[in-house]
Amino acid sequence: MPGQVPIPAFLMDICMSRNSHLAGSVLLAVSLLTPVLGAYAWDGVISGRVIQINGVGGSAGAPGNFDARIFLEGQPTACGPNSPSWGYINSNDANYKGLLAMLLMAQASAKVVTLYTNKDSLGNCQTGYLAVAS
Question: What number of CA atoms fall less than 13 Å from residue 132's CA on the CB side?
Answer without folding.
Answer: 15
